[in-house]
Amino acid sequence: MVDSVNCSYPPRNYCNASTAAVPTTTSTPHAVQTPNCNSCSRNVTVVGNSAPIAQFQGVNQWNCSDVVLRCSNPTGGRVTLYFLLNGKGATYANGNGTLYETINCSTEGYQWVNINGTGVPVNQVSCATS
Questions:
Q1: Which of 45, 66, 98, 118 has the smallest number of Cβ neighbours within 10 A?
Q2: Are the beta carbons of 129 and 120 closer than 8 angstroms?
Q3: Alpha carbon distance 36, 56 (integer Å)
Q4: How far apart are CA 111 and CA 123, in angstroms?
Q5: Any domain includes 25
Q6: 40: nearest Cα among 107, 129, 92, 109
Q7: Which of 83, 90, 78 is nearest to 124 (CA)?
Q8: What's the domain of life for this entry (predicted)?
């Protein structure tokens, strides 16, 4: 049985699981409710005429699945990640060089991104460089 999972985000992007001895018990088993925050897709759909987007799967501090996105401009110029929900623009993030953003899975089972302190439901992404 896995006791804990620790993930590292960019630049290393890996997870380690550790195990612990689980005591046996004779008590009546209890129903365990599995949170929906691991039921989201393990990637995000890339749409349009997007620059390449690398996707790294992980687990966040609440033990929910997430996907870290990375888009780079090889010349160090402008990078914009456009986030969409069912084909409609939801939000965006921009910067220069390389841009990282994390897509989280909610306890309700949908994907969302946090931009400037606001959580926005999303399910598609596109990257533009200039």
A1: 118
A2: no
A3: 20
A4: 6
A5: no
A6: 109
A7: 83
A8: Eukaryota
Separation CA 27–CA 15 (nearest Å):
33
Distance CA 59, CA 17 (A): 11
State the total domains in the chain: 1
Does a structural domain hold residue 10? no
pTM of the predicted model, to two decimals? 0.72
**Structural domain includes residue 57:** yes
Long-range contacts of 11-17 (CB under 8 A, 24+ apart): 13/56, 13/58, 13/68, 15/58, 15/59
- Domain annotation covers residue 14: no
